[in-house]
Amino acid sequence: MKKLTLLLFGLIVFSSCLKDSDTLNYTYEYLPIDEAITPDSFTFGEVDTIHIKYSLPSYCYSFDRIYYETQDTTRIVAVTAFVDLEADCAEAIVQEEYKIPILATQEEDYVFKFFKGVDSDGENIFDEIIVPVN
Is residue 127 part of a domain? Predict the structure, then answer.
């Protein structure tokens, strides 16, 4: 019993020396899409590819995932980046490209809204591209 008490006491002392776990050392941000290249049209039932280009503003940023939301015939697309808040990062803009496969499952035109940033009023800005379906 004494060994168990000593072990628990040791764990409590050790855990109190660890960093404060309530402080986040990272965050996620949506990055503007610099360029979106879409096909002239989709063929119903077939897969096609959209190419997007985005820029990482420093080495603290790294690609996390594509934000892709469906609303009826509209698709909202953005890049989600992981941002390390503790690293000492050099300012260097790195442009990257990502390919998104799209299966045309609707016969209506696709409306893509590509995230371009935020205006001075805090409203999201989108570049809208309509791709018809054959």
Answer: yes
Report the half-sphere exposure of 80 (CA within 13 A, side-chain side): 11
In a domain, 46, yes or no: yes
Instruction: Give the chain's residues under pLDDT 50.
Output: 4
Residues spanned by the domain of 55: 25-131
Distance from C-alpha of 113 to C-alpha of 26, rounded to nearest angstrom: 27
In sequence order, the β-bridge partners of residue 133 are 42
By three-state DSSP, how is residue 130 classified? strand
- Domain count across the chain: 1
pTM: 0.79
* Residue 122 CB-density burial (10 A; 0-12 exposed, 13-18 middle, 19+ buried): exposed
Residue 114 lies in a domain: yes
For the segment 37-62, what is each residue's pLDDT rounded down to a tens digit? 999 999 999 999 999 999 999 999 99
Contact 105, 16 (CB under 8 A): no
